[in-house]
Amino acid sequence: MARAGLTADRLAAAAAELADEVGFDQVSLSALARRFGVKDASLYSHVRNLQDLRTRVALLAGGEMIDRIAAAVAGRAGKDALVAFADAYRAYALEHPGRYAATQIRIDQSLVADSPAMRRTAEITYGMLRAYGLAEPDLTDAVRLLRSTFHGFCSLESTGAFGDPRDVRESWERTVDALHVALANWPRKEHDRRPPQLSP
To answer: Which are the contacts of 192, defined by CB distance < 8 A and separation ≥ 6?
Structure first.
């Protein structure tokens, strides 16, 4: 409906807000239509289906997240960059749980390749890791190590799964320290080089 001022970007932004409120898995076209006071059919002029909407939220959130990370790591290198990167990642994940969940879905590689935010994510992440002297395929392996560690920690923290009284922030800092040691002492092997992938 024209009076609702619907656009694909506005729907994605509203869906991102809804995701933070109720959880990314609970975002639906019906829930979004109710938020705008329109019928479900009104949304299909702007998004193809639920998967299209979820992908738009994922790209929006990915752009927000890498903007925060880029600002944090600017002018830094080595461990300083890693700590800044990690802290910005964790802050976004905890402040925006629904948006963060969206960043974890699998996106069609053609859309990833066309997304400035996804390309920037790869450039910043790989650039930080190259400062440790890593080259392919070790770069991709290191990205996967960081992603799985950060995601696992933040997912557990967000659900209150860490029951021990030890301060979670202290454990996070030690985890990042351990990652720095692992990256600085990466096990070196002779490998064929291959171009970096955008979604390890």
So the answer is: 137
d(CA 18, CA 15): 5
Task: Tell me how far apart the alpha carbons of residues 18 and 42 are, in angstroms, rounded to a whole number.
Answer: 18
The token duo for 50 is 């639920």
**What single letter denotes the amino acid at residue 66?**
I
Model pLDDT for residues 38-66, shown as the tens digit of each residue: 999 999 999 999 999 999 999 999 999 99
Burial class (CB in 10 A: 0-12, 13-18, 19+), 195: exposed
pTM: 0.90
The set of residues, in sequence order, having a beta carbon less than 8 Å from that of 55 and lying 6+ positions away, is 105, 107, 108, 111
Tell me the C-alpha distance between 99 and 184, whole Å.
32
- Answer yes or no: are the C-beta atoms of 14 and 32 closer than 8 Å: yes
β strands within 54-199, DSSP E: none
Tokens representing residue 78 in the block: 């080595």
Token representation of residue 129: 């890791």
Dig out the tokens for 113 from the structure.
Answer: 């390749």
